[in-house]
Write a structure and sequence with these properties.
The protein has seven helices and 24 strands. It is an alpha+beta fold. The protein folds into two domains: 53-139, Purple acid phosphatase-like, N-terminal (Immunoglobulin-like, Sandwich); 147-441, Metallo-dependent phosphatases (Purple Acid Phosphatase, chain A, domain 2), CATH 3.60.21. The structure holds 2-acetamido-2-deoxy-beta-D-glucopyranose and fe (ii) ion (FE2). It catalyses: a phosphate monoester + H2O = an alcohol + phosphate.
Length: 443
């Protein structure tokens, strides 16, 4: 009778003393967090096939979508047939490119990237890749508000990843934003393929816009440069935003300008990325895109023990630019827990700074980052180590609703939510313009 109580108290004491935050429930019970799950085993499929595999889509400039897939047959054509009714393909495109790569003994097969369009906004298209195989369908994003983004980083491919994806699949959203760490292949190239298969039902029907994490790097000293598999497979629309690299770029959709930064490529004030960021921020027209979002992998505001301080140098180099430009929201991954900040700048509260959200809790095999620094810093509003995903609904030019959904025993439970007002609609923005010009226009 007494034993469970003592055990529970001991567990609570341990949790508190080691910096683990116990999730308290409305009923007051202690929440026993689920443990990490094993990497999913996906059956090996015969190769030497021209059958399209691992289909995923991404935005590729205004009203255009890139369709990416892999075949193991070099003669398979890079063509996409599409139309707005099932089985009726009124258009066809072979605009694009193919690539492939070798990684030690591994041969990627033929990676096709075909751009289709112009497409109507907010419309369902049916499509087929390479003139054969299954029919897929996608929905294009809306041309104006409201627009909804699903957000989950550090996905991996475990049972919890499958749960997160299932929950995302049940919500209505237009685009998936992924702040880095996709497959957790970590040099095992076939794991990129199994990840591609795992996400295909979701990534073939809504654009997945991704940036790279440390698990995408896979470099081998003096032998392999980094990001070979990532760049070949997850090609993003960097040219359209004037970026020289697939590792950082921006895009616009329905009144939102989204900047995808690279935490694992040079970001100091003399780097290509820094110069590109300055130029990109200078081009943003807040009358056209009142919302300004940034994604990156290693968080700048993080009160977890995990990866503490890893984003500091990038933050020192780039946060002044983001602040001057009036970035509304920064979404990060890397730390396998959820955390949301107040508006912050320069490591403290600032009502004209960005809200920072760490959402690296997609469900990868490394498990959760359970230990938070105590006491909670004043800028941290909500933090919890659980798997889950986020939803950002931008309602209009002044209001956005953010919610975080925890994978609670395989159910999606809304656990944190907040209304965010755009900086454009605040007094900050009018005040900031001269400062912005000074910072952005100085060589
Ligand atoms: C924007 O959306 C919010 C929340 O739904 C609403 O209260 C507000 O009136 C809307 N503003 C405009 C200009 O429509
Ligand atoms: Fe990471």
């Amino acid at each position: 009778m007494e034993l469970p109580v003592v055990a529970l108290m001991a567990a609570a004491f341990l949790a508190i003393s080691s910096g683990i935050e116990a999730a308290s429930r409305p009923g007051g019970e202690l929440y026993i967090r689920p443990s990490p799950r094993k990497t999913l085993w996906l059956p090996w499929r015969p190769r030497h096939s021209s059958y399209p595999q691992q289909v995923h889509i991404s935005l590729a400039g205004e009203n255009h979508i890139r369709i990416s897939w892999i075949t193991h047959d070099d003669s398979s054509p890079s063509v996409v047939d599409y139309g707005t009714a099932p089985g009726e393909y009124t258009s066809s495109s072979s605009i694009g490119e193919t690539t492939s790569y070798f990684y030690l003994l591994y041969d990627s097969g033929k990676i096709h990237h075909v751009v289709i369009g112009p497409l109507e906004p907010d419309t369902v298209y049916y499509y087929r890749c390479g003139g054969q195989g299954r029919e897929f369908h996608l929905k294009t994003p809306p041309a104006k508000f409201p627009i909804t983004f699903a957000v989950a980083g550090d996905l991996g491919q475990t049972g919890w990843t499958a749960t997160t994806l299932d929950h995302i699949g049940q919500c209505e959203y237009d685009i998936h934003l992924l702040p880095g760490d996709l497959a957790y292949a970590d040099y095992m190239q076939h794991l990129w393929d199994s990840f591609g298969e795992l996400v295909e039902p979701y990534a073939s029907s809504r654009p997945w816009m991704v940036t790279e994490g440390n698990h995408e790097k896979e470099s081998i000293l003096l032998f392999k440069a980094g990001f070979q598999a990532y760049n070949a497979r997850w090609r993003m629309p960097y040219e359209q935003s004037g970026s020289p690299s697939n590792l950082f770029y921006s895009f616009e959709v329905a009144g939102v300008h989204i900047i995808m930064l690279g935490s694992y490529t040079d970001y100091d004030v003399y780097s290509d990325q820094h110069a590109w960021l300055k130029a990109d921020l200078a081009k943003v027209d807040r009358a056209k895109t009142p919302w300004l979002l940034v994604l990156l992998h290693a968080p700048w505001y993080n009160s977890n023990y995990a990866h503490q301080g890893e984003g500091d140098r990038m933050m020192a180099a780039m946060e002044p630019l983001l602040y001057a430009a009036g970035v509304d929201l920064v979404l990060a991954g890397h730390v396998h827990a959820y955390e949301r900040s107040e508006r912050v700048y320069n490591a403290g509260l600032n009502s004209c700074g960005a809200v920072h959200i760490t959402i690296g809790d997609g469900g990868n095999r490394e498990g959760l980052a359970q230990r938070f620094h105590q006491p909670k810093p004043e800028w941290s509003v909500f933090r919890e180590a659980s798997f889950g995903h986020g939803e950002l609904k931008i309602v209009n030019e002044t209001h956005a609703h953010w919610s975080w959904h925890r994978n609670d025993d395989d159910e999606a439970v809304k656990s944190d939510e907040v209304w965010i007002n755009s900086l454009v609609s605040s007094a900050c923005f009018a005040k900031r313009m001269p400062e912005l010009r000074n910072i952005l226009m100085t060589p």
